[in-house]
Write a structure and sequence with these properties.
The chain is an all-alpha fold. 77% of the residues lie in helices and 0% in strands. The N and C termini lie far apart (42 Å).
Length: 61
């Protein structure tokens, strides 16, 4: 048995296109984040946007 099959990552058990759908979903989520950031930058200006990102990062760490 291969290492991928032991880890539950065998392609026989997953429906065709599952990996492609997962990649598409991750790409769409990344695109939404970029679009939201661009919208904030456009409406709030760079200074406010950078301050908001810095505050968010400080809150996380």
């Amino acid at each position: 048995m291969t290492e991928r099959a032991e880890a539950g990552l065998a392609s026989e058990g997953s429906p065709p296109g599952t990996a492609r759908a997962a990649r598409l979903l991750v790409g769409a989520a990344a695109l939404c984040l970029v679009a939201a950031g661009s919208l904030l930058w456009w409406t709030q200006g760079s200074g406010v946007f950078v301050a908001m990102v810095t505050a968010g990062l400080a809150w996380c760490f």
